Amino acid sequence: MAEGLVLFENRSLVRRELIYYLKVTDRQTGQELGRIGDIHTGGMLVFTPEPLPVQTIYNLSLELPKAMAGDVGFAELPVKAQALWNHPGPKLSNYYENGFRFLALTDSAQAVIDRLTSLFSMP
Fold it and tell me: Which of 3, 49, 110, 112 lies 20 to 30 Å (CA to CA) from residue 69?
């Protein structure tokens, strides 16, 4: 195995890369943290300019595509998530990848994420 390569073989859910890099905002500060790299109902990968502190719990707002916002009645999805890991982006040195686990995701939030991935996943 190449040095620095980390495998996440214990995932039970398939991560879905979206056709959009949707904005992730900290609801407490209103500050944009980064952009979604991939997502599933268990968690997500977020690209950020700086690494986020591991084990920190965030109240986040996930931007939804405009085409979907009308369907669900809102343009952002509120979620609670915990940062589990971070490392420099493998392709470019100007961003970090941060792994998040969703905490207490409601049934309606799960349905929105399922719809998001079914409509806007990369082929």
Answer: 49
Give the Cα separation of 43 and 105 in Å (integer).
10
The CATH number fitting domain 23-120, selected from 2.40.10.220, 3.40.50.300, 3.20.20.70, 3.90.980.10: 2.40.10.220
> Comparing 97 with 3, which gets the higher pLDDT?
97
- What kind and span of H or E run contains 80? strand 76-88
Per the structure block, which two tokens stand in for 103?
A: 């905490």
68 or 49: whose pLDDT is higher? 49
Facing residues of 62 across strands?
Answer: 24, 77
Which residues lie below 8 Å from residue 27, measured CB to CB, with a gap of 6+?
59, 60, 61, 78
**Would you list the domain boundaries of the chain?**
23-120
Question: Alpha helices of the chain — where are they, by DSSP H?
Answer: 66-72, 107-120
